[in-house]
Amino acid sequence: DIQMTQSPSSLSASVGDGVTITCRASQGIGNYLAWFQQKPGKAPRSLIYAASSLQSGVPSKFSGSGSGTDFTLTISNLQSEDCATYYCQQYKSHPLTFGGGTKVEIK
Amino acid sequence: EVQLVESGGDLVQPGGSLRLSCAASGFTFSSYWMNWVRQAPGKGLEWVASIKYDGSDKYYVESVKGRFTISRDNAKNSLYLQMNSLRAEDTAVYYCTYRNSLDTWGQGTMVTVSS
């Protein structure tokens, strides 16, 4: 099974800051990597697929990069509505696996 | 617009059974892999099962193998999860998701396993 390790598990930043979340796969997954945003009590929302492709309707403040084993999600100009938990997920092979999540808060 | 609507969640006793359904619309259902993903209270996301577009291939997380069965009816644009021998640790919100990149999610249905 491919293990996904996300860091940090939580972060606090100021409004207007840029933040970066990293995700590491235990083996190479090419670009079969997705990122999700989940707000409390809500279903997850897909932000990025294929490591760097933005889902339709997702603002360009979200960007993804990486390939192989190391990936990043960057959120620019952090706003209160970006407070959420973010997850990465690999879909290179079954079982599909998720990172542990990163909780983003406003300082 | 892709829409996924889950139903069937309930309170069930340990050892009991439940069948979840997911009604899909807004895309060619018969052309895509479909998945179930769950989230226990206060925990992260866990993939549960996947089914190929024609139903010919299925995958399960180890903890549900032999107890859960994923199926689909392409004529009805519907996905199902038959859950047997339920355990307390199966308590979670269950989400129906579209494609292995999990592009779209339903609102979820709550399954509580408790005596």
Largest sheet descriptor of chain A: 7 strands, mixed
Contiguous helical run count of chain A: 0
Uncertain runs of chain B are: none
Q: Which structural class best describes the helix and strand composition of chain B?
A: mainly beta
Terminal Cα separation of chain B, in Å? 40 Å
Protein structure class of chain A? mainly beta
Q: What is the assembly state of the chains in this entry?
A: heterodimer
Residues in β-strands, percent of chain B:
over 45%
Largest interface: A-B, 22 and 19 residues
What global shape of chain B is seen?
Answer: globular
Radius of gyration of chain A: 13 Å
Q: Could you spell the SSE succession of chain B in H and E letters?
A: EEEEEEEEEEE
Helix content of chain B: under 10%
DSSP summary, beta strand count of chain B: 11
Radius of gyration of chain B: 13 Å
Mean pLDDT of chain A: 97
Q: SSE order of chain A in H/E notation? A: EEEEEEEEEEE
Largest sheet of chain B: 7 strands, mixed
Count of distinct strands of chain A: 11
Give the N-terminus to C-terminus distance of chain A in angstroms. 36 Å
Description of the structure:
The complex is a heterodimer of chains A (107) and B (115). With 107 residues, chain A is mainly β. Chain A contains no helices and eleven strands. In chain A, the strands form two sheets. In chain A, strands 2, 4, 5, 6, 9, 10 and 11 form a seven-stranded mixed beta sheet that branches. In chain A, strands 1-3-8-7 form a four-stranded antiparallel beta sheet, with no helix packed on it. In chain A, a hairpin with a 3-residue loop joins strand 5 and strand 6. Chain A is globular, with a radius of gyration of 13 Å. The relative contact order of chain A is 0.34. The model of chain A has no long low-confidence stretch (mean pLDDT 97). Chain B is mainly β and 115 residues long. Chain B is 0% helix and 50% strand. Chain B is built from no helices and eleven strands. In chain B, the strands form two sheets. In chain B, strands 2, 4, 5, 6, 9, 10 and 11 form a seven-stranded mixed beta sheet that branches. Chain B has a four-stranded antiparallel beta sheet with strand order 1-3-8-7, with no helix packed on it. In chain B, strand 4 (34-39) and strand 5 form a beta hairpin. Classes of the chains: A mainly beta (107), B mainly beta (115).
